[in-house]
Design goal:
Bound molecules: adenosine-5'-triphosphate, magnesium ion
Distance between the termini: 34 Å
Mean pLDDT: 90
Strand content: 15-25%
Radius of gyration: 31 Å
Number of strands: 27
CATH architecture of the largest domain: 3-Layer(aba) Sandwich
Shape: elongated
Helix content: 10-25%
Number of helices: 13
Length: 609
């Protein structure tokens, strides 16, 4: 079906300017020139030298720093939206940074999937091809592992300045001596080693002189701090593993707490936005920035960390580990199963970037955690953005045959009556769809009732309904098979009632039903999805989320659809009249050959049911 707007969803509403505390912080910093001292030149990772490069006007720099150990999910969509839209709104830049400091879990497959997801969400202008940086690395795309050299130098500096030491306690001793919330920690016996001894030991760690786990480098902060994150956190560990970027160059790897602030500082991030779990890590973030500034390793105003409440969505799991389990144990058909809350899953299901962005924006940015957002809000965003623009089509999801018994006398046995309908009821410029009505018609099974329940205005013996865009028909009965199942509904056409012709309304009917002509209707596979979990918080309190899997989350129907859908392109979206929003499946749908549609969501909210 050709339509001028095709799959473009309506532009999402303008971002609300007020009410986002992080935006207010950014505005304040811009007004007060907090980052006016920044210069930008060279490459991050060069250390302080790059800060003396070309002057660049002070800009907001944010970053989205996924660890490439899984596919992104709906929670990440929120973080992506927040970071990229803040930067865009204030004329700044948002970096896509792969936080790939952990050599064990990261894979190239995930790097590519993350890049594609960020692009799909609409932030591709940040990755436009830059002739100055050919190859995989795009502008504003960074890898934490590129900073390993700098991180190593920073660690040596901390050792020399007496701010870090090599600890040879066993992991059990370290755990025991860390204390807990009520009990201060105990200093390690290695804590008072001289900087020279520590440096020698650390170099031995780097040079592979010690086995994995034999010792770690720790910051020397305060073992009695009420904040456990300040009780001499580990900075480096020995781990013999091949890293996807640095190969076997290193056998020591920096820990997140140490690496992340450095990554932010080297990229001259101004506002380092993360979720609330990291709040207790902020004091160490600031401690490290101060120490490195004292040592002259960082000269620009340090980035600051701000935390917001993570996005929790009802009936959804947002933990990469648990999502991986669903995939690996075969509870779903891969990361892009349309029931998955991954961005590839949501995409395949038919959600649009516009709907996800609107949803992220509406879910709010707050300082408190624990809030849950109703999944219905995502569907509402989808309907609002798709309804004004997507083409309409008729589809019969549970086909039941209907025969117009007086067709031959009235119209002639071989006659097919051309009918048409607007592609979009409010956009005449999108044109008309064409299909035919003949003696044999497909209708929805539940549009017929032998004994009509109260308030039922569709087909039952003696009742008249309109075949939408066609004629009024009067039901005369139905045929049944040996078991008593309805096999065919019988009806008579009422002459001179064709939609759009003079006098069409002379016969009043209370019911209008959708249909597809048997002569030109096309068979299609239609996947009807329901929530993946029956419980609103399937993994709350450590519950076994597999117990809450909905056994009816996927139903596949053999449907009949109107002929215009033959040319639907993969990922093209439609509103099937009366049924909801559907998308031609990204993978299985083949125009003109094999039609496969996924239901994104119904026309009305059904989450409350
Ligand atoms: P997971 O727990 O699923 O592995 P993660 O937080 O470890 O997720 P990262 O790849 O480290 O995943 O996350 C990248 C960014 O996305 C981080 O800044 C993180 O705070 C943010 N993020 C992750 N989940 C959510 C969420 N549910 N809501 C908002 N932001 C999120
Ligand atoms: Mg993580």
């Amino acid at each position: 079906m050709s339509s001028p707007t095709n799959n473009k969803a309506a532009p999402a509403a303008e971002p609300t300017k007020a009410g986002n505390f992080i935006r207010q912080i950014v505005e304040h910093d811009l007004q007060h020139g907090t980052y006016a001292g920044r210069h930008w030149g060279g490459e991050p990772g060069d250390g302080p030298s790059h800060q003396a490069g070309m002057a660049d006007p002070a800009k907001v720099r944010t970053r989205f720093p996924p660890e490439p150990n899984g596919y992104l999910h709906i929670g990440h969509a929120k973080s992506i939206w927040l970071n990229f839209s803040l930067a865009a709104e204030f004329g700044g830049v948002c970096h896509l940074r792969f936080d790939d400091t952990n050599p064990e879990k990261e894979e190239q497959e995930y790097v590519e999937a993350i890049r594609e997801a960020v692009r799909w969400l609409g932030w591709d202008h940040h990755f436009a091809d830059d002739p100055a940086r050919p190859g995989m690395r795009q502008p504003h795309e960074y890898f934490a592992s590129d900073y390993f050299d700098f991180m190593y130098r920073a660690a040596e500096y901390l050792i020399e300045a007496g701010h870090a030491y090599v600890d040879e306690q066993t992991p059990e001793q370290m755990r025991a001596n860390r204390g807990d919330f009520g009990k201060p920690g105990i200093d390690s016996p290695f804590r008072s080693r001289s900087p020279a001894d520590n440096l020698a030991r650390f170099r031995e760690m780097r040079d592979g002189k010690h086995p994995d786990g034999a010792m770690v480098l720790r910051a020397k902060v305060d073992m009695a701090s009420p904040n456990i994150n300040l009780r001499d956190p580990t900075l480096y560990r020995i781990r013999r593993a091949t890293h996807h970027n640095t190969g076997d160059t290193w056998c020591i790897y920096p820990m997140y707490t140490f690496a992340h602030p450095i990554e932010d500082a080297l990229e001259q991030i101004t506002h380092s936005i993360c979720t609330l779990e990291f709040e207790d890590q902020r004091p160490f973030y600031d401690w490290l920035m101060e120490r490195l500034a004292e040592g002259g390793l960082l000269t620009a105003p340090p980035p600051r960390q701000y935390e917001f409440g993570r996005l929790n969505v009802g009936h959804v799991i947002t933990s990469k580990r648990k999502l991986r389990q669903l995939v690996e144990e075969g509870h779903v058909n891969g990361w892009d199963d349309p029931r998955m809350p991954t961005l590839v899953g949501l995409r395949r299901r038919g959600y649009t970037p516009e709907a996800l962005r609107l949803f992220a924006e509406r879910s709010g940015v707050t300082k408190s955690g624990g809030a849950w957002t109703d999944y219905a809000a995502l569907d509402a965003a989808l309907r609002e953005t798709l309804d004004p623009v997507v083409p309409r089509a008729m589809a019969v999801l549970e086909p039941l045959a209907l025969e117009i018994t007086n067709w031959d006398e009235l119209m002639g046995p071989a006659h097919l009556e051309p009918c048409s309908a607007p592609v979009h009821p409010h956009h005449p410029e999108m044109g008309q769809r064409h299909f035919t009505l003949g003696r044999q018609v497909w209708i929805e099974r539940d549009d017929y009732a032998e004994v009509p329940p109260k308030g039922f205005f569709r087909l039952f013996p003696g009742n008249k309904v309109r075949l939408k865009y066609g004629y009024v028909i009067e039901c005369t009965g139905a045929t049944k098979d040996a078991e008593g199942h309805i096999t065919k509904v019988l009806a008579k056409l009422v002459p001179d009632t064709k939609s759009g012709t003079p006098g069409a309304d002379s016969v009043k009917v209370k019911g209008v039903i959708t249909w597809v002509g048997a002569a030109d209707g096309l068979h299609a596979t239609v996947h009807l999805y329901d929530r993946l979990f029956t419980e609103e918080q399937p993994d709350a309190g450590g519950k076994d989320f597999l117990k809450a899997l909905n056994p009816h989350s996927l139903r596949t129907a053999r449907a009949v659809v109107e002929p215009a859908l033959a040319q639907a392109q993969p990922e093209e979206r439609f509103q099937f009249e009366r049924h909801g929003f559907f998308v031609a499946d990204r993978r299985e749908h083949q125009p003109g050959k094999e039609l496969v549609f996924n239901r994104v969501t119904g026309l009305r909210d059904s989450w409350g049911k």
